[in-house]
TrEMBL record:
Domain of life: Bacteria
SMART domains: HTH_LUXR (SM00421), REC (SM00448)
Source species of the chain: Streptomyces chartreusis NRRL 3882
The protein's name in its UniProt record: Transcriptional regulatory protein LiaR
InterPro entries linked to this entry: CheY-like_superfamily, NreC/VraR/RcsB-like_REC, Sig_transdc_resp-reg_C-effctor, Sig_transdc_resp-reg_receiver, Tscrpt_reg_LuxR_C, WalR-like
Modified residues (4-aspartylphosphate): 54
Signal peptide coordinates: none
Length: 220
């Protein structure tokens, strides 16, 4: 059973998402909150698998709530998915850096929404190729400062290749095909790279790949 926490200051939004989730046999909404502070308390109480958090809320916004969840060892198993009205913007990028596993635009179709919840529960990032392209466009138009790549030196050649392909939006199966390895081996390379780079998940791995200079927009 996938346990979900809903955090949004708009009751209609929460009730709409809950109505969809309550129809699924493998998903349970364990709690709802109207702001990030309350959401953090309920996350500690219920330990959900997925926390769907609105990015703009009073008291404690979605970015700060994400940052606090990511920093709390007790909540290490909680996968935060940011909810936004606007698609990819600076707030979403900040949320990815803070530890979010990905984001959803609120006008998403129900089938994609339910699929996204299940993807997040598995620990995979919600970074489809189309979203990765938006990330790339963001770096083209407004590049971020490049950070020292010391941690990158710890990666093996295969791990670096896997990170580059993750940043290009490829799935584990696609990476396996490209590198002529098994999907399990591809996942192992990616997990080891995340550990070495201290990335919480694939979403942060993508951001780190661009910020470190391992991948540049012209490479994609």
């Amino acid at each position: 059973m996938i346990r979900v926490l809903l955090v949004d200051d708009q009751p209609l939004i929460r009730s709409g998402f809950r109505a969809l989730l309550d129809l699924e046999d493998d998903i349970e909404v364990v709690a709802e909150a109207a702001d990030g502070g309350e959401g953090l308390e309920l996350a500690r109480e219920h330990l959900p698998d997925v926390a769907l958090i609105d990015i703009q809320m009073p008291v404690v916004d979605g970015i700060e709530a994400t940052r606090r969840i990511a920093a709390d060892p007790v909540l290490a198993g909680v996968h935060v998915v940011i909810l936004t009205n606007y698609g990819l913007d600076e707030y979403v990028l900040d949320a990815l850096r803070a530890g979010a596993a990905g984001f959803l635009v609120k006008d998403i179709v129900p089938e994609d929404f339910l699929h996204a919840v299940r993807v997040a529960a598995r620990g995979d990032a919600l970074l489809a190729p189309s979203i990765t392209r938006k990330l790339i466009n963001r770096y083209v138009t407004q590049p971020l400062p490049t950070h020292p790549g010391t941690a990158l030196e710890e990666l093996t050649g295969r791990e670096r290749e896997a990170v580059v392909l993750v940043a290009r939006g490829l799935s584990n199966d696609e990476i396996a095909d490209r590198l002529v390895i098994s999907p399990l081996t591809a996942k192992t390379h990616i997990n080891r790279a995340m550990t070495k780079l201290r990335a919480r998940d694939r979403a942060q791995l993508v951001v780190l790949a661009y910020e470190s200079g391992l991948v540049t927009p012209r490479d994609s």
